[in-house]
């Protein structure tokens, strides 16, 4: 059976937001390997910028890979390399610095998500927006343990306190998922500057009603309209099955038919 081929269209955008005077977010794209990354730095003006930059730069050195498993291994190795670099500088300077990360990798008709922190990945399929990642925050950990009801999460004072991030500790345990995707599926990667301002229903509606080429910019524009208190970064990736042309025919011409 001939393997299905997909065209992958993508758009990316980032903005400082309405309040901050600098942008600690970064995105990286490795189109030849079909890898997309969002990083959200933490630790202050220069430290956050530098931390997210280490993650973005680590993806510029990904090796050629065959298959999703080897691609995800390369992605994880890149993040671990950045983790070591950031952690070592933090120790030498006596400060905590780090960055969230969420990455999407595609091979054939399969995808993988690898992440640490509260930058998210979503999947828009059949008009429904599905959150693929789970936030690595203290509040989410309390929800998982049954200590905190989910409806109280947004208003909790520790809602933005991370339980995991790249560069904060010597050892980093990444989380990941893999699955198959369908033609027409749309992936969204974003920093918490988006999902911390817009509810999932509004994000879904913007993705459904915007032209794909304008969707990333429209999401950020909407955040700015309601007062984005944080940096905002968005990547959207959409898969379309390529049309396969079959030349020739096995059908026998009918007698008297005009050919």
Note down, in words, how this protein is organized.
This protein is an alpha+beta fold and about 260 residues long. The chain is about 30% helix and about 30% strand. It is built from six helices and ten strands. The protein has helices at about 45-60, 70-95, 140-145, 190-195, 200-210, 210-225, and strands at about 5-15, 25-30, 35-40, 100-105, 110-115, 120-125, 130, 175-180, 185-190, 230-240. β6 and β7 form a beta hairpin. α1 runs antiparallel to α2. The two termini are about 30 Å apart.
Quick recap of the structure?
This protein is of the alpha+beta class and 259 residues long.
Q: How are the SSEs placed, and which strands pair?
A:
Layout: E1 6-15, E2 25-30, E3 35-42, H1 45-58, H2 68-93, E4 98-107, E5 110-116, E6 120-125, E7 128-131, H3 138-144, E8 175-180, E9 186-190, H4 192-195, H5 200-209, H6 212-226, E10 232-241
Antiparallel strand pairs: 1-10, 2-3, 3-4, 4-5, 5-8, 6-7, 6-9, 9-10
Helix pairs in contact: 1-2
Instruction: Give me the count of strands.
Output: 10
Q: Which structural category do the helix and sheet elements fall into?
A: alpha+beta
SSE string, helix = H, strand = E? EEEHHEEEEHEEHHHE
Radius of gyration: 21 Å
Largest sheet: 5 strands, antiparallel
On the 0-100 scale, what is the average pLDDT?
88
Q: Going across the major beta sheet, what is the strand order?
A: 1-10-9-6-7
As a percent range, the share of helical residues equals: 25-40%
End-to-end separation in angstroms reads: 31 Å
What fraction strand?
25-35%
Q: Note the overall shape.
A: globular
Number of helices: 6
């Amino acid at each position: 059976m001939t393997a299905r081929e997909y065209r992958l269209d993508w758009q990316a955008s980032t903005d400082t937001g309405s309040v901050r005077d600098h942008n600690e977010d970064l995105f990286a794209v490795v189109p030849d390997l079909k890898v997309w990354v969002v990083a959200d730095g933490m630790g202050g003006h220069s430290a956050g910028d530098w931390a997210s930059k280490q993650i973005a730069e680590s993806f510029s050195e990904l090796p050629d890979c065959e298959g999703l498993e080897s691609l995800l291994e390369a992605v994880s190795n890149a993040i671990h390399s950045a983790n070591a670099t950031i952690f070592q500088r933090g120790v030498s300077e006596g400060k905590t610095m780090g960055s969230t990360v969420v990455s999407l990798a595609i091979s054939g008709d399969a995808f993988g998500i690898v992440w640490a922190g509260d930058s998210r990945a979503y999947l828009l399929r059949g008009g429904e927006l599905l959150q693929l990642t789970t936030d690595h925050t203290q509040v989410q950990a309390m929800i998982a343990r049954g200590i905190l009801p989910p409806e109280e999460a947004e208003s909790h004072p520790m809602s933005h306190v991370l339980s995991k991030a790249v560069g904060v500790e010597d050892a980093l345990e990444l989380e990941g998922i893999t699955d198959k995707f369908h033609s027409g599926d749309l992936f969204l990667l974003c920093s918490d500057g988006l999902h911390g301002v817009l509810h999932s229903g509004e994000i879904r509606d913007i993705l459904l009603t915007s032209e794909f080429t304008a969707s990333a910019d429209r999401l950020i524009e909407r955040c700015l309209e309601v007062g984005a208190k944080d940096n905002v970064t968005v990547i959207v990736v959409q898969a379309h099955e390529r049309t396969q042309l079959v030349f020739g025919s096995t059908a026998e011409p009918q007698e008297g038919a005009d050919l």
